[in-house]
Amino acid sequence: MVKHLLAINILVILCGLGGFNLYAQPPESEEQLKAEDLPEVIRARIIDTTQIWLLPRARFKDSAKPQLIPSLALYTKERRWNLPPILTPTKVSRTAPLPREDYLLRLTAYPSLPDALFYQATFGGNLDNTRAFLHLNRGQMGDERTKKRGDYSADGIRGGLTHQHAERSELAVDAALDLKNLNWLEVTSGNSLVGKEVQQLRTAARWEHGISQRGRTAISVNLEEFRLRPTQGETQPEYRATDVRFKLDLETPVGIQNPFHFGRGVDINPIHVGAATEYTTAAHGPDADELASRDNWSTIFRLYLRDEFTSVKWFAMGIGVEGVGYRERGRDEEEAIHYKVNPHVAITTHFGEGWSFELQGKRKIERAKLSELYFDADYLSLNPFLRPEKAWDGNVTLTRHQGRRFEAKFSGFAKHVEDLVVLEESSKNSESAAKGISWVPRNGEKPVQIFGGSVGMTAYITNRLETQVRYTHEVHKPNDGERIPYRPNALLDLHAAFHFPSDFHIELDGEFRGARYPDEVGDRILEPYFLLKPKISKFIENHVGLFIGGNFAIGTYALLDGYELAQNYFDFGLELKF
Questions:
Q1: 308, burial (CB in 10 Å: exposed 0-12, middle 13-18, buried 19+)
Q2: For 502, what's the count of Cα atoms within 13 Å in the CB-facing half-sphere?
Q3: Which among 5, 50, 94, 388 has most CB atoms closer than 10 A?
Q4: Would the pLDDT of 246 be above 90?
Q5: How far apart are CA 231 and CA 451, in angstroms?
Q6: In b/e form, how buried is each residue of 480-500, taking b as 16+ CB within 10 angstroms?
Q7: What's the rounded Cα separation, in Å, for the pair 441 and 382?
């Protein structure tokens, strides 16, 4: 009897694990349980009660909630931070990443009409806890593409490596070298062309390490080196600049007794404490490689403290303070060291169904990276004495969420900026009147005010159709009769994509830029333009992709006065992926 009962129990357990129920007629008396009375075959009826529900798992970063800081979702633990109830997650969970392949190889090559050819290659690999990639790109454009300004070529190589040597400790290294060869106009030779080579070297390293269950430390180092030199003749000087940035950030939870929450105990807030430094040096002329002159360098030191979220009734408040010391050359050509205190306040809350509200204000002192100032734009010469921008910045944002399929943002902003960086044609500078026509970043002479608003929308109309639209309008308040060079009053960006079955995609990007003034004073104007960028692509068996596309401009497509770009061009190419 024991053997028969054991078999029945095992069968019941297995059926229960599989989502089934074992159904049998119960015995009427104990005599029926005698071994000699049990039949040789037990007939049972199994009822399948298994139900599978394919429901999307709710993510922590839900579009129906305000965007919170990443430190709230670092670890898969139940962590009740000091937030209002509508912002406090009951459980923080991280979505499992998609499984990575051991390697990825992607090759893309396409001609572009008129007169251009582009190709690039990307290789990525994964081995245990180490991931690495290598990317190569090459672009070549001729006379027809550059509006008779000669050949233009761009080359780049970039590589990166990430190693996770502990559960919450990771090291990442990245390096890139980019080169450009292009032709600039000269004002002393009847607007003839002279070749220049632009070189940009960028390296970065970041180390993150968990020092406790909730604490974390991060150290990052960034190095950029910019070089601009003529490829023939001595009519143009050589420029060189170096930018080094170091940052140390410590995040730790701190218990704070909140007077607004009687009887709730101590609130736990993520506190950030850190320090950063930026060092920039530049030189030009025959001795540009030496960079030995102390007259052409500047530094910025930062110490900061931030309480990311403090709960005050129905609001989540972020408070921070930053002490900044910086050295710069003033308008009187004298070097000086300045000290400033930069406060920061942000308030976030919800009201109604699907509405969120955010108000923030801060003071900031920032210097753009060399790559942002010089390499990402063409025909710019280096300014060794560029000062950082100082600004008071405030904005208010109202957001409407409709589930995960629709989001609309309405924002208003106001800025008061000193030493605003603007572009000036170098031939207007008496020190470079005999140089080629180029543009030099410089600081504005007087403070300016910038007011405006923006409207943005993101909609997933169906599972295959997505759209994004954002319009921004600005009102500039420099001195009477003056303008901010090359800064449009109206900007529109849009993106739409439709994904058909079988890896067939249609995309449309567009940008509108309003009228721009190339000078601070005067009536010269760059006409507005609207640029459409359609693309159709199809992958065959997940390995071979074909695409066609291009850029089509309405209006005069020119980013700088005198340097127009091709109004229309057509791309078609091939992509291989393994």
A1: buried
A2: 2
A3: 388
A4: yes
A5: 43
A6: eebbbbbbbbebeebbbeeee
A7: 7
